[in-house]
Here is the input.
Amino acid sequence: MSTIGIIANPASGKDIRRLVAHASVFDNNEKTNILQRILLALDAIGVDQAFIMPDYYGLGPRALDGIRLSRLQVEMLDMPTTGTDRDSTEAAARLRAMEVGAILVLGGDGTNRVVAKGCGDVPIVPISTGTNNVFPSMVEGTVAGLAAGVVAMKVVDVNRVSYRAKRLEVYVDHELIDIALVDVVTSSDLWIGTRALWNPSQLREVVLARAEPGCIGLSSLGSCFQALGAREEQGMHLRLGPNGVQVLAPLGPGLVTRVGVQAHRLIAVGEEVRLQPGAGTLALDGEREIEIYGQPEISVRLTQDGPRVVDICQCITEAASLGFFCGSPIQKL
Amino acid sequence: MAELSKDKLRWIYERMRLIREFEDRTAQLFAAGKIPGFVHLYAGEEAIAVGVCALLTDADYITSTHRGHGHCIAKGVDVREMMAELYGKATGSCKGKGGSMHIADVEKGMLGANGIVGAGGPLACGSALMAKVKGTDQVTVCFFGDGAAEQGTMHESMNLASIWKLPVIFVCENNGYAQTTPAHYHCAAKDIADRATAYNMPGFVVDGTDVFAVYEAANEAIARARRGEGPTLLECKAFRYYGHFQGDNMSYFSEEEIAANRARDPIEKFKKRVLERGLMTEQELAEIDAWAKKEVDEAVKFAEESPYPALEEVYTDVYVSYP
Here is the structure.
């Protein structure tokens, strides 16, 4: 019995960066279409069952309205919803307990962060439907569905087609309070507010798990010094300020601006970075999440305890090399 | 985020508390049969009106809805005149002729509450066009609800505002229900902000129970409008404590929903955060609570002691001149 979990965030791709940058709206009709294409791909290759997280928009029921599936049984996860990011963590934990073969995640860095809190060792297939995304790929849903399907059906060895993501653990006064998958940033903004970061003058320190030159956001800032991919066993710590080197970086869609970098250094897996004290907010994977009061001791540790992530291209290539898509061996010309 | 001074934080709390006090008292007075007509109460949505109006001056305009008391108070309309208006007294904001759903105070830039759902959009385009033609930096904020979002007037207004790059901020107060119909039933898009793409304007969702989030979002949208770059659609997700109108038994609310709403009360959230930051003290907040109560006490006394309009007043303030 092959089973798949699907967690789709109806709230991703809709924040203030539509106004302060030039991000486009990732509307829920498009997410519904992506979900339909995923389900059709899962059905086509013979996955038995899929469970979809319920949400306020009803992405799952809407996706099922208008497609015909021949084999795939689709059910909504039976769980209470809050309409917050806690739903994604809860859904991931339930799917893990149900021992699904893989979890498809539709959302941005933030969605994957909260899924990572609950999914354990279940491999995830992240599809970008957010804004400044580093962690999930901008990939066609059909292909992502095929990749998740061949993992769940055990056509391929998941260890050969996936990698263990890095994880940034955030400690306040030595207590683990949250995690991030891409970056942890301290901001002088006192309030969480609209969550997004776009004003470089308010950023103080950045800890990166990845420094990706092909992405936008603070990950790209780090890549101006050294690129660090998802599988490299290093991260980066940057201290920002107006007197530093003025680095031109794409902080958001259409938002290419100078950011003052006073110092930067690589950090190793296992290393803990202590951040400078001060009132403000902590942003995790691009969103202000925690308001800091008083003078707590804040540190960030880079680990390799993140979720197992399926490399979609590698996965499809592996399945193809095994003849999975041919049905029967074919003769070479 | 734009800096929030101590004075501004104090103003925000004063206005939110004054709205809550005014609405809770109005509920009691209406139940006691002292207020004629209908009242639609704003309690629970205070962070939206206050977070937006904190960035406006008297020269800027707002258009409102049938649930307009909060907008009036946030824009600085006198609560004594408002209460007198609810009582239908001659000292009311509109001489007692408008009642709850038609309070206006043009001097304060409050262009009127409105009994017609979705009627504020065209008015907002009108005042914004005036500002654009005159070359002022005035902006107009159009408050409307999730029910109004389905009205043709709002679609036409957002389309027109975008074509002409009018300085309007469309603030959708999505409290989850159009009268008694849940938003998930009446709104195909679910997130009304999604429609902004079709109007070729920026649109996004913000937590309407978090005054800091509303303030930050409105600050950017208002700045864009003042720069002449056109309108923005801001959808504030919130809730209301009272029914659609007083007398609505709210049978469509579950106990769980009511409890969840109480847990995200905008005033309590504000208090908790300014106290934790040490930006305001318990005593300062308590003094403002007492001030708000006193303001509403005086407003009620003023309204009850005021006269009704004279009979001849029925012929004035109308479009036809009577001999």
User: Anything to note?
Assistant: Strands of chain B lie at 61-63, 140-145, 168-174, 177-178, 181-182, 203-207, 232-237. The interface with chain A takes residues 1, 4, 184, 189-191, 193-194, 196-197, 202-206, 210, 212-213, 215-217, 220-221, 224, 232, 260, 273, 276-278 of chain B (CB under 8 Å).
